[in-house]
């Protein structure tokens, strides 16, 4: 905790230095001597996140990447229209390409299953509450998982979806096996990537999932033999559906049925610390989604969002709107030390980072007669 506070303090000092003229060189292409403030921040970063490098040349390269990432984080904070704070994170020594390869889907986006988007009855919009947070109900949302270097956000999001819906439907607390989804998956590629529908198809084919305790997560990239038949099932799904690409309808379903999975563009999450992200299509393309997470709620921020004034000069204070900012609450799979204790918030109402592209959810029920399921073409 003391290390985290020191890192935040040193980062604040460095931002002042950046504003006074260091920022230019950091954004340049050439490597070179770095300011003392930056080296101190990097040293604390290494200690806090247990980073070590093979040799001095690699350390110098990572320091240069770290410097560029801090400059990028400062730029993002200036451009963001929400209340988000960007800065040092566990991924600050990675290039954008490194980050995408390790934490993205890393699989060409295939065709989603041939399921129609679920249309909710008209005229129910007034039933959507102003706020909703399923974390406030006991034993519904399980602790934040950490996918480590395994590209299994798709499996973790699906597992979290099933756990929460099972708790709501049957008042039973369960933690299901992510490793079973990886080992027994016929459609995705285990730790090499996949999509939420791959996980749901696996659950249907296996007639349920074992518990996390019985079939624990390994988090490595080795291929493992499927052991589904060796373990008792603790949760099942009836089927899965895709919701309409409409944020009001998504909110209505979330509030009345429970958490759902969404797949977003994760580009800005590399530098995210806290607050509500409200990006533009230029900074977070809603068409390029590559990371699956669990949508657990929505609300309104007491802090007012930044708003750009037309013709405003660079560096001038941004005018503040009178209204608070609406947001979605999302559960990530990068451990509780990232973001807001493992969670993050996106602006609600502007399809930020493509949140409406693939809103998928399982429907849970007791097991029924098994039906054959095929991978999507």
TrEMBL record:
Protein name: Cathepsin W
Annotated InterPro entries: Papain-like_cys_pep_sf, Pept_asp_AS, Pept_his_AS, Peptidase_C1A, Peptidase_C1A_C, Peptidase_C1A_papain-like, Prot_inhib_I29
Domain called Cathepsin propeptide inhibitor: residue spans: 42-99
GO molecular function, one term: cysteine-type peptidase activity
Keyword Isomerase assigned: no
PROSITE patterns, alphabetized: THIOL_PROTEASE_ASN, THIOL_PROTEASE_HIS
Keywords: Disulfide bond, Endoplasmic reticulum, Glycoprotein, Hydrolase, Protease, Signal, Thiol protease, Zymogen
SUPFAM superfamilies (alphabetical): Cysteine proteinases (SSF54001)
Top-level taxon: Eukaryota
Organism of derivation: Orycteropus afer afer
